[in-house]
Amino acid sequence: MRLLSVLLGTFLAVGVLVPPAASETKRFRIGRSVDGRPIRVVERGDLSSPNRIVVVGCIHGNECAGRAVIKKLRKSRLANDHFYLIRTVNPDGSRAGTRQNGRGVDLNRNFKHRWRAIGEPWDTYYSGPRPWSEPETRAVRDFVLEIKPRITIYYHQAMSLVTKVGGRNDRRIQRRYARRVGLPLRRLWRHGTATRWQDRRLKRTTAFVVELPGGAMTRSAKLRHARAVKEVSRMSRRGNR
């Protein structure tokens, strides 16, 4: 018995039997929608890590298949990087099944970078009366500027591609993600988008859109995209060393 205790102590001392650190989890909100619904964040992983990764499942309320990736990541082991998982930044649109928020604004045309006036309330791409006019986009802006994420991924539908964004972005991360999920990497030009604003506003950041196919995600697709998120997070961690 004494020999067993000595051996066990030796194994523990060198870390052979010590299990890997478990993910930490916190929950908080970053703001509220036009109709007062909370915009919630689940913070997971190594909360001391400077390698911060934001994943947004839904910004257009009728393009929310990406919430399945958020659900998958919330159940995954995320012990090495610092993840912020946001099911939706447009809870009013998600509830109503509309692209726009509760005031009829396309939130992904309401960010400041290259904003321009587009349409009227409830038009498909209505930009709002001015940049940052919506509480949802202001909440995202303040949150991003506070934590300064290394990577931010927004899920949309249904163009089946990964966006190629220039500027300060690390194109390798976008290429790797596209390759891992089997989608083409394409450039899209849009005014007032979240990703282009973040890319121009922050240094050492990579913000891009993943356009999922239409409809619900298959089980294999959920797993593929969750794995791609974790793989590009590892890439950015190595780049931060």
Question: What features would you describe in this structure?
Answer:
The chain has 241 residues and is of the alpha/beta class. It has a single domain, classed as Zn peptidases (Aminopeptidase), CATH 3.40.630.10. Helices cover 33% and strands 19% of the residues. The chain is built from 7 helices and 8 strands; from the N terminus they run αβββαβααββαβαβα. It has an 8-stranded mixed sheet, sandwiched between helices. α2 packs across α7 and α5 runs antiparallel to α7. The longest helix has 21 residues. The radius of gyration is 20 Å and the shape is globular. The protein starts with a helix and ends with a helix.
Number of spatially distinct domains: 1
Mean pLDDT: 89
Unreliably modeled segments = 1-21
Which architecture name does CATH use?
3-Layer(aba) Sandwich
Termini separation comes to: 45 Å
Q: Output the helix-strand order.
A: HEEEHEHHEEHEHEH
DSSP strand tally: 8
CATH class assignment: Alpha Beta
Separate helix tally:
7
Adjacency order of strands in the biggest sheet: 1-2-4-3-5-8-6-7
Please compute the radius of gyration using only Cα atoms.
Answer: 20 Å
- State the share of residues found in helices, binned by percent: 25-40%
Biggest sheet, open or closed, and with what strands and sense? Answer: 8 strands, mixed
Query: Strand portion, in percent?
Result: 15-25%
